[in-house]
């Protein structure tokens, strides 16, 4: 049975205190600490993922509808106490926290993948979440991020991905762009998506290139010169004249579908 929370500062729900200030507490190193998951769909995906869930917290109707594994602490509160706990009005009605997924070794991640996406310099959490959702839907087997990307397990990233980032094999590369050589050595054709390229993405035949790593850069600056120099192919999405580019999340979805 869920336990009722009446004090917004109750230490049992400390994972959710003041989320408006960010998921990472002062003094906590980037990329560490629990993952906060928001919304019924994402929480349900977490509960079925096999990850270690720390607790579930929400309004009674939403909490009661969840199939929470035995042993996971479950807390409920009215919407006003819940809002005071997290620092804003939560329309989705339920949150959960879990331990961070353990990143797979790069060699293991590459060995089990056919299509991967490699992200450089993406500092918008919602773009990362949207790319994670498209990646899961469109046959991308894993995600690699350079060290300057935003945290893929930040609450907004996970929410926008509908929880798919929690179960997608994912690793932050420490040697950038040097680790791209390991990707190529594993048999992947590395393709940089950039609007100024001469190669049409439709000409990158997924049959001829059965293992593909697609590189995506931040909106505005795009991929760095160092990353572009390390790839096999530079390709563009064909668009109407006068259109400079798509947003990175939209471009990723188009490219993922094209390279299936």
Describe this structure in words.
GO terms for molecular function: RNA binding; RNA methyltransferase activity. With 260 residues, this protein is an alpha/beta fold. The protein folds into two domains: 3-98, 60s Ribosomal Protein L30, Chain: A, CATH 3.30.1330.30; 106-258, 3-Layer(aba) Sandwich (Alpha/beta knot). The protein has nine helices and twelve strands. It has helices at residues 40-47, 60-64, 79-86, 106-111, 125-137, 155-160, 180-185, 225-229, 248-258, and strands spanning 3-4, 35-38, 53-58, 74-76, 94-98, 115-120, 142-145, 170-172, 189-193, 199-200, 212-217, 233-236. A seven-stranded parallel beta sheet has the order 8-7-6-11-9-12-10. A five-stranded mixed beta sheet has the order 1-4-3-5-2. The longest helix is centred in the middle third of the chain and has 13 residues, at 125-137. The mean pLDDT is 93.
Structurally, how many domains make up the residues? Answer: 2
CATH topology of the largest domain: Alpha/beta knot
Instruction: Please identify which CATH superfamily of the largest domain we are dealing with.
Output: SPOUT methyltransferase, trefoil knot domain
- Please state the structural category: alpha/beta
The ordered string of helix (H) and strand (E) elements is: EEHEHEHEHEHEHEHEEEHEH
| Number of helical stretches of at least 4 residues | 9
Total beta strand runs? 12
Identify low-pLDDT runs: none
**Overall body shape:** elongated
Major sheet: 7 strands, parallel
Percent range for helical residues?
25-40%
Keywords: Methyltransferase, Transferase
Biased composition (Basic and acidic residues): 1-28
InterPro entries: Alpha/beta_knot_MTases (IPR029028), Ribosomal_eL30-like_sf (IPR029064), rRNA_Methyltransferase (IPR051259), SpoU_MeTrfase (IPR001537), tRNA_m1G_MTases_N (IPR029026)
Protein name: tRNA G18 (Ribose-2'-O)-methylase SpoU
């Amino acid at each position: 049975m869920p336990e009722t929370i009446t004090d917004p500062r109750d230490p049992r729900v400390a994972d959710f205190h003041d989320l408006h200030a960010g998921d990472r507490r002062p003094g906590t190193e980037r990329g560490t600490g629990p993952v906060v998951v928001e919304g019924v769909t994402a929480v349900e995906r977490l509960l079925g993922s096999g990850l270690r869930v720390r607790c579930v917290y929400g309004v009674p109707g939403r909490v009661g509808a969840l199939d929470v594994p035995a042993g996971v602490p479950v807390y409920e509160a009215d919407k006003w106490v819940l809002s005071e706990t997290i620092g804003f009005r939560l329309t989705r009605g339920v949150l959960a926290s879990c331990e961070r997924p353990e990143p797979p070794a790069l060699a293991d991640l590459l060995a089990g993948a056919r299509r991967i996406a490699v992200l450089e310099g993406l500092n918008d959490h919602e773009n990362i979440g949207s790319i994670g959702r498209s990646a899961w839907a469109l046959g991308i087997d894993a995600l690699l991020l350079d060290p300057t990307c935003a945290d893929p397990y930040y609450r907004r990233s996970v929410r926008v991905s509908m929880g798919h980032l929690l179960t997608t094999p994912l690793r932050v590369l420490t040697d950038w762009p040097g680790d791209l050589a390991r990707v190529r050595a594993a048999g992947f054709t590395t393709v940089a998506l950039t609007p100024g390229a001469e190669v049409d993405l439709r000409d990158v035949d997924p049959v001829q290139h059965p293992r593909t790593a697609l590189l995506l850069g931040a909106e505005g600056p795009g991929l760095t010169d160092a990353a572009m120099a390390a790839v096999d192919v530079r390709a563009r999405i064909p668009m109407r004249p006068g259109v400079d580019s798509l947003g990175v999340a939209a471009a990723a979805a188009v490219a993922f579908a094209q390279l299936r």
